UniProtKB/TrEMBL annotation:
The lineage of its organism: Bacteria, Bacillati, Cyanobacteriota, Cyanophyceae, Oscillatoriophycideae. Signal peptide: none annotated. This is PhnD/SsuA/transferrin family substrate-binding protein.
Length: 296
């Protein structure tokens, strides 16, 4: 999922968001008046209504058929804005990524409904074929390009690989958030390494007509946590259970509707149970980079 460069500033803005669970741990039954007829839905990867309609219009139609409710798109500028929308009760239902979920869960008690896998959703670190760097440890004192602050595969994932190699990401090397310019910068020798999505790396090589040997991979992480459908914690408990049950029973229809998403992100995906503990890796990295207060 995409991130914004004002990540930490935006997190500060929602730092006051509070939990909304009832004392017995069940979600609140308040404000459920017209939710049986309509669910307000957003995707944190889409920046505006046009992108929502283009990439997730088929999903919206499928959800309306599966849930037998009107699905209304509510565009948000970022996942931070989505968290604020959940907190202020302007959104009921969200499709979001691992990094965003962790923040949403901490700040709004967003309820995970179901996960959606992403094939080969993992992080790699690669270097130039002309480089003498053969391991992540050798990046000490070097420059590494990453995607964008807060990105699961393009920031937190590669940072975890640095940490696992014994490097301090805050002091042992220089991290540059270059977005789509990162891999070209590596090829030109402007940085020493690139850390990001394995899929993005493969696509870059394919688009440029390059072999894998051009940018050899020196580290590959495990599969990252799944994307998630989450709901507003103020939704009726029985309604949440019904949404989950209907989505599971109609998983093939929903997955088919996601094939239109850009870059084939959900091609070959599966709907799976959502387990909060699967996202502890993301929480660990936040804490290591000194941002643990945002997910508490």
């Amino acid at each position: 999922m995409k991130r914004r460069h004002f990540f930490y500033y935006c997190l500060f803005l929602i730092a006051g968001c509070t939990a909304t669970k009832t004392s017995n741990g069940r979600v609140s039954n308040e404000n459920t008046g017209n939710y049986l007829q309509k669910l307000r839905f957003t995707v944190t990867d889409a920046q505006n209504l046009e992108e929502l309609e283009r990439d997730y219009g088929e999903l919206r139609i499928a959800l309306e058929q599966v849930l037998e409710k009107k699905i209304e798109f509510v565009p948000v500028e970022s996942y931070v804005a989505a968290a604020a929308a959940l907190q202020s009760d302007r959104v009921d239902f969200v499709l979001t990524g691992p990094s965003e979920y962790v923040v949403m869960r901490a700040r709004t008690n967003a309820v995970p409904v179901i996960g959606i896998t992403r094939p080969n959703y993992r992080t790699v670190i690669c270097v130039s074929a002309n480089s003498k760097i053969g391991s992540v440890k050798e990046l000490k004192g070097k420059k590494i390009a990453m995607w964008e602050i807060g990105s699961t595969s393009g920031h937190l994932g590669p940072t975890k690989l640095l940490i696992d190699a014994g490097l301090n990401p805050k002091s042992d090397l220089k991290i540059l958030m270059l977005g789509s310019k990162g891999l070209p910068a590596l090829r030109k020798g402007e940085v020493d390494a690139w850390g990001g999505s394995a899929v993005k790396c493969e696509k870059f090589l394919q688009d440029e007509g390059l072999s894998e040997n051009t940018l050899p991979i020196i580290a590959k992480g495990p599969l990252l946590p799944d994307d998630l459908f989450v709901v507003n914690s103020k939704l009726n408990y029985d309604l949440v259970a019904e949404i989950s049950d209907r989505m599971v029973k109609n998983k093939d229809k929903l997955l088919q509707s996601l094939l239109s998403v850009a870059e084939g992100k959900y091609k070959g995906s599966k709907l799976v149970p959502a387990n909060d503990s699967d996202y502890n890796m993301v929480r660990e990295v936040y804490k290591t980079i000194g941002q643990g207060n945002f997910i508490q």
